[in-house]
Amino acid sequence: MWQQVIFWCKTHFGFSAKESRGFLLLIPFLLALVAASQVLAWAKNQKASAIYRQYLHEVDSLEEAGVQLLVSPLPTFNVQDTITRFHSTKVSERIHRLPFSKTDSVLLQIVPGIGALTAGRIIKHREKLGGFIQVAQLNEVYGLKPEVIPLIWDYFDFDTAPIRKLSINLATVEELASHPYISYQEAKVIVAYRLQHGEYHESTDLLGIKIFKVDWIEKIDPYLSFNPIEKR
User: Does the predicted TM-score (pTM) go above 0.85?
Assistant: First the structure.
């Protein structure tokens, strides 16, 4: 096989036997160079993707801090100065005011200081709770600065929409623990007490569990329903 290849090189390229052997030895090196160029291109693309992800993170962080970018913060785009974004009543006058319970993560970004990540966290917390019943609950949203919360009410009207409730007499431990105000340990105790003493009729029945404080029971009460278990 080797001799046939050398003969083919001699007849087609006019190589001598020595030149043919050298040419064949060069082929693996050329293939290695091609493979190396592909690997370098892949590594370059990975680095570019990482830079772009970092860029998106920085943009969102700056938006959450109330800064409006004039240009991209990436150094390859020649960063210039930024300006602080001040609240403008003119914007709020040009839009329809919606109930806060009907807003979503897109509409919330109209509020100065709220970017995509923070807006998403607000909606996610609202859904986990089952609905906001007090303005103060917004202080529980990670990344939402206290000074930004008053600006929300320049664009939306706070309202107490129908709350999505958990049936304390039917919910499993996991279902109860999915609520932000109820830990897994507390959920286990609630279900264990229910199994031992029967269904709950009102929130004060939870006082029978001596370790629970009144203020915590009052906090979760709006999110619980005490529908009796249907008898079969």
Answer: no
